[in-house]
User: Fold these one by one.
Assistant:
Number 1:
Amino acid sequence: MPDVITTTDLCKQYGRFMRVKDLDLRVPEGVVYGFLGPNGAGKSTTMKMLLGIARPTAGTISVFGQPFKSRNRLSILKHVGALIESPSYYGHLTGAENLRIICVLKGVPVSDINRVLQIVRLENQQDKKVSQYSMGMKQRLGLACALLGNPRLLILDEPTNGLDPAGMQEMRELICSLPQRYGMTVMVSSHLLSEIDQMATDVGIISQGELVFQDRLASLHEKSRPSIAVRTLNNLAAEKILGGQGIACLRQDDYLLLPQLSDIELADHISRLLASNIGVVRIEERRRSLEEIFLELTGTAVSL
Amino acid sequence: MFLRTIRAERMKLHHSPVWLAFLILPVLPAVMGTFNYQQNIGILQGQWYSLWTQHTLFSCYFFLPAIIGVYCSYLFRLEHLNHNWNAVMTAPIPVAYVYLAKLISASAMVLLTQAWIGVLFLISGQLCGLNLPIPPELPEWLFYGFVGGSVVCALQLCLSLVIRSFAVPVGMALIGGISGLVAVAKGYGVWFPYSLLSLGMRANQPGGAMQCSTEQFVLNALFYVGVCIIFAVLWLKKKDVVAG
Amino acid sequence: MIKSLVMEFWKIRRRKVWTIVAALLFMQILWLLWGVNRMDAHELSQGWMFFLYQFPLLNAIMVPVIAAVTASRLCDIEHKGQMLKLLPTLMPAGRLFTAKFLCGAFYMLAVVLLQIAVMVIAGLVLGFAGNPPLDKLLYYLLFTMTVSITILLLQQVLSLLFKNQMIPLAVGVIGSFAGLFSMFLPPGLGKFILWGYYGVLMFVRMDWDRVTRITDFYYVPVDWSGFGILVVAFCLIYLIGRSLFIKKEV
């Protein structure tokens, strides 16, 4: 399957500051691509370049297999829905009227408005002025605008921003369902790992403008290298015994970390320890959390 | 506490080249008015007094109210944007101070403008080679003009407080200015707030007393400013804060 | 393009842009008519010329503000809702610029047509000598429209490029002031100031005799070179302003 978005050596410079450096994005078709990075890493800037509202300093972009140039930009964007940073709207018009304007500009039949309102659950508020919407409603309206016309590609910048837990859950489920139900490819950016973990199938991690990881989400999990932590009443002796069996132990606080073992092997070692009169008081499985992996990859603290 | 509010106001205006507009505006009538004076020196025989009319006539009725409108709109634009009303109204300062601090800020700008107008007037007069002594009433004109200008500030601030659009109060300032012209011509000048500016500056008839009594002028000015302050405070107190 | 233009009008529903425009126009008409009540025979015989002299003068004061307010209202809805992020992904930026301009120009046209209507009706009611001079009124329409939409265009460029509407409005007020003054300067100088073109393209002059205190109006030939300069200025502002807006990064 061809990639929906491909960038080569994409760069963006503001003044003397390189916001985005040599980015090589590959977004496959029909996936939910999680674009992850700390605040200020360059996620929004990259997405703006993908939509052509910011001009790259260097590098090329290709969308749907075609090079993204100012000539064919709008014909490509006809099949793209976008929500960048905060939702865009006319406050003095109602939700339905805002959607109507987008419909007319996109050339989408007006009947589509009801469909997208149902998807985001805003049918009851469609005749209220948007300036009176709560933040969550504005966010949902922004998503509705992006969904109009059933685009092939959705680019969403922090779509769960400002939503309450129930709303976030709904949004997540919605985004996950989009590839199967409508055949869309979704590119979601976030700084919330847990969110990306639940939604995405492919992940790209950006840090300080550079792409530090890009692969399926499963490979990111594989990096977590689980280990078994054992606490005994006599760690030194236990370490010697296990070392004698060829098991390399790492000491961490008052735990011994063993590499991943099968259940039978582990039971075997534990019984050997017990046979030597070493009381075993804790056996835990330790997985490096996604946070820790992220921290290692980006070298920065994770934001909440 | 009030001083702190005023300091905060000044800080809000940091990085705003707002004063540029007030700097440039009086230069226009100074230059062009002087030029016009020179061209018509046969008709305009009042020397300093005629020059003064040239400088101030159009400013007072149309363009000073308009630029004051722009400035006052800007002062409240700072609050209307970015949900700032939420922050302003929950700060531990009395509601009246919010309005008063802005009024002081706007009036200070008017005062500086008046001083600048005076300076330009003196320079122009020298350039024209006027040999009569400088009119002693000049400071008086500038002062009463400042009073009249403050009334316009108070009114425009009320308009900008209520109307969230930037441009509409400016249009209304122009309408006010023209109505002021009509009011003065009909003789009701002292009763109409926008006319006080031109009356104070003696734009029509410099040299001699105001076209109304000074006491009436000052009383009316204070009255209008007072009404505006009361209106603004009541509005801020009663209305729910809508920040968006 | 028609679609975009219709959208522009649709976007400003409930904004009541026409309210402030109507108020300003109403004020201008009142101001003009205020001096018209008592006109003697001599003045009535020159009634049409009187209107064609007064209106451009008043226009120099009022129409730039109308243009600035209209342009500002049309453009600040985009800034307030951060639509300039979304709109360029839906339509070409150049088309947005042109559609907004046409929408604002419509208001300017309405203003000028109303002015002409008032001129004709008032003139007929007051009993000005002769029929309304159609050719002169058409010249008035052409010249006033051209100056007004050029100012509107400049205001729109400023209102779109700057989020802070203070800049376009301050420019509008100062510019109109400069234009008014330039009308009292020797004719050549008025050509350098855009706002002064109300005066440059005026084709009625006034002669006030101090002794007899009679004002006399007379037609002068139209300054076509001035008109030419104005048209060139319009094209320049359109091309430069439009490309600046298209290139603007959000």
Number 2:
Amino acid sequence: MGVGRHPLGPPGRRVSRVVLVTGGSRGIGLACARRFQADGDRVAVTYKTAPPDPAGAEATAPLLAVACDVTDPGAVDAAFATVEAELGAVEVLVCAAGITDDGLVLRMSEERWSRVIETDLTGTFRAVRRALPAMLRARAGRIVVISSVVAYLGNAGQANYAAAKAGQIGFARSLAREVASRSVTVNVVAPGMVATDMLAALNEDQTAALASRVPLGRVAGPEEVAAAVCFLASAEAAYITGAVLAVDGGLGMGH
Amino acid sequence: MGDDATFEKFKKCAVDVLQVPEDKVVPEASFADDLNADSLDLVEFVMALEEAFSITVDETELDGVDTVGQAYDLVVSKL
């Protein structure tokens, strides 16, 4: 039993790692990618709609942007192959690719239900499964899954999204047990209200109802979520696995 | 059955994935007791064999496979 081992480098001294952020072209994913990049890592992002805007104010260097629809296993495989060829094996995986497609359960179609589960939950599974062999061989790795406060609070109109986000937690914790012996850690970040395109898609009533319940009384910036993600991916977090770290201004307090 | 070259290739997979010395990869060696392999090691080993020999091994076929010899026979049966 190794005590105090830091497979990703000793704490306090940063080594450049290969990081892949799915859904890293905007929102929380992009904030994570920029933060890893600022910390000296070699960072790739996958995108479905459009690559990250290279003219972004905080853009220091171009990210390796790879088109990838996480609902397509072949596309996930191809995206990893591209990253491996360009940067090397993925050492840190952040699963941030996700969508919402809101509606009340009473009127929710099979298609609307499945689309969200397929992207948010099964897409996470696909990316993780593809990343694992190299991490297991390396006896090191960091996986961070972006869930949501609605996983445990629930949210009217988001049953599909909440189910997928809660599913990610059960998935991550099971995986954490499976790969712990190889020093691969798996953790979850559960953001609350974050200023992204996804939040903008909620209607005013939903936004107001959620905002009124945030003890810190404001919406988070995506970089505040990225800080938690980067911590869990760091060498310093070597002894943390299976954790759910809420970054929600106190919204889900107690969970 | 299988020939020497096949067993050498098999042995290389075991040495690489299970990180054991070559001389311990003998037919009667038990994965769990002699090679200190856990379930995750075995899955990784099977994946390496699948790639090296271009075969497909179903999870159910691994029931009762406890020794190097049994695993080798399973691989040879698929060639």
Number 3:
Amino acid sequence: MKRALYLAAAAACAVGFAGTLYLAFYQAPLDRLLLFNQKIFYYHVANAFMLFAAVITCGVASLLYLRKRQGRHDDLALAAGELSVMFGAIVLISGSIWGKAAWDVWWDWDARLTTSLLLWMTMVGYVLVRKYGGPGSERMAAGLAVFATVNIPLVYFSVRIWRTLHPQTSVVPELEGGMRVAMWSSVALWLIFFLLLLGVRRQAAYAERRLAELRDQALDAGLIE
Amino acid sequence: MRTELGGVVAALGAGGVQRGRVSFLRHVAAMAWKDLRVELRSREILFNMAFFAAMMVVLFSFAFLKEGRDGEVVAVAEIAPGFLWVAVLFSATLGMARAFDREREADTMRGLLLSPAPRTALFLGKAVSLFVLMAMVEAVVVPLVWFFFAAPLFAEPLPMAVLVLLATAGVAVIGSVFAAMLMRTRARDILLPVVLYPILVPLFIAAIKGTSGLLGGQTEQAWFWIRFLLVYDAAFVVAALWTFESLVIE
Amino acid sequence: MIDAVVIRGLTKRFGTQRVLAGVDLELRAGRLCALLGPNGAGKSTLLGILSTLVRPTAGEVSFRAGDRALGGGGELRRIIGVLAHDSFLYGGLTAVENLLFYARLYEVADAEARAEALLDEVGLEPEARHRPVRTFSRGMVQRVALARALLHDPRVLLLDEPLTGLDRGGAASLVRTLESAVRRGCVVLVVSHDLEALAGVTTHLAILRRGRLQHEGHSAAGFSYQELKELYHRHAD
């Protein structure tokens, strides 16, 4: 049943990627200022949403794990945490390219981009702790994820206020109708992609944990040495 | 003089040990007092932290010298707040790592956890002692920055004091949680800054911008950042209290 | 007054490693139970769970007073005293300061008097009491650690290898303290490899191996050294 769901989602994504390419490049009108370069926006924004979705999923799952110590929460947190690093990287790279195209700088200390950078760095820290933290690293990483999630609004506001002292560059341009369709389709596509990857990765983490538990039960029953 | 253990201990035991009523705050105070007594007696951490911070300030001033109006070489006053807070942050990191290291000798951390003292009291006690140590270091560093950068940090003493207090409290609390979390990890010294600094960024921004505001005479701006720090500290104290216990028990 | 500590189906896994596999054991007041076993048997973990520091993966431990089971956390820790290989003492503080600090954590009334009395009993010379613990010999540290464990008059005493590093006199002294604790009606559990020292005082024997209870026995008169050695060889080697 689950497998069928994953296959369906994967198929939807495949269609979706092709479809949004079409929408973005053929249907949506050209942006007045940036022309073709603006197209990257359709992937950048969707991935930014997914970055935040992944981080918040990781944070909430981590909190549940710390409270209840149930393995399945940790599985979800791990999957979401890893995905947030992936989405974060896409956001930062695409944002940087866009910035170069739009304002001729590779990096601009815009509030949203800076928040994404810090969030990404924190989640890289999360993955590092899980990998190199030694025994008990699930708990430590979970604590970090909770803090990272609490931090999101604080980082955003502090950077934004800080930035109002500097010239503002608008990140999200006005959206015309055609653009709106392309953008929201892109968001929908990446959302399904995120959920698909999350489900599969969580499943893998669960399987690994379950295997270890079964091994213990087998040891118990004397089936293996 | 060695006496027979059995008899007198039995007598004491039978009489029953009275339990005093000690509140949560007194546990916090006991922890903080113990920490400070241990640290200040050896003075090792304090000297290391203070010296390290001072060295950073001096090095920074070399890094950013410019020609003044009269052709003399002066340090750039505008970036003084940045250096002040970077120096404080780095030296604080030294302090927090060492503070929990101490609890690994003779496994006193376990001794603490075995006691009926609430875990949150243990944690707050550590945070308070770290706060005091940082304050002592700041008492050295702030005048140094004032001196080397000719930055009028004492022009508005009240907002400056509140700002420093809130920023220090934030670092102390969050640093204590992460240091406790990573206490038994081999890669602790590397991982601690990696996980801690991104979380501290908003505090950092607030502290620097607030200090610049005070230097530039924009007191309104400084008070804004002070309010921000209040929110930040509150949010993370809650997060820390929620998660600390789960982080130290197996 | 604790009557018994009842352990049922206790299981503990660390990651993929299973350290305890369903242990059932009942510890009664007024008895000294020796927990023996080879390295890696799970003895320290069992002690860790009993002292509330480690959460079991499955199973339960209940501290019974009459028909009542004691609540968790703080209430339990008030009545549990632990003496381990690590001393839990701050090297930079003096013996007295260490005891006074822990007295504050355990809310012991009349702390100064109690600390002095205990230091008398464990036999720490008055000159040494106001010196930092890091200047002490192993034997002296162990004495102060024992005083620390007894400071709050615990009803349950858990000792993890308390005899290592002690000379004959120190070991005998420690065993006498344990005997008096047993007479007072405490629940005493000792993990140790020193069968000689435990002989005669051990009335309850439990042998752990690979996370399982291999053997359990009682002896009203106390197990002799020969008996302990033989049982250990049979079940733990």
Number 4:
Amino acid sequence: MNFAIAIHGDAATSESPRLALRFARAAIAKGHRIHRVFFYHAGVSVANSLVVQPQGEADTAAEWAGFAKEHGVELAVCVAAALRRGVLGQDDATRYERAVATVHPVFQIARLGQMIEAAISADRFVTFCA
Amino acid sequence: MTPRRILFVISHAPRRGALALEMLDELLVGAVFEQEVSALFIDEGVFQLVDSGDTQGNVARGYRALPTYDVSEVFVDADSLKKRGLAVDSLAIPVRALTRGGVRKLVAGQDVVVPD
């Protein structure tokens, strides 16, 4: 089965990114595919490369990045939601005259249409709310 | 590909920063994909259809645009309205009120359900 996943919560205040990761790992382990993982609402914060986790605490963002690389899963971040929360690609950092780009390189800046496209074309669309 | 039935379920109150407006954005983008799109307002979400009269952050005014988009139908959970002292005719847009049984049937008949 082909899954699309949406993540609405950030790692600091919600279990959403962690639960979604466990779901994604289980799906791949069972031989399913993941069409796209879309980070929306506060979930875009998972893609913020400036976040530093204290030692000994789970680094969900790093785990997502590792998972995506290992299994070739696309991680997409909604551009409008990301701008509101300081997650910027190089283009936006330049356009809005911000000092740094903050998006983790494994995550792609995307548009909402890509989430709808994923929801429509996947066999199942699973949302992890905040 | 046959159009898929997509239901957006709005169950949170409007005043939560950008969340309500982001959900509206999502719904409007969904509506241009030529699918069978509908919306359900339930629990605290029914407040999103109450026009507060404010000019800023008034998501009810955003939802007024729905009829010009290709959204098949807007539903509300009748029980949620009643519990909050609201009536269908006090909402910003025309809606169809459903019983809890009707809500269950609606959700069960969808291909995709998108919560807020």
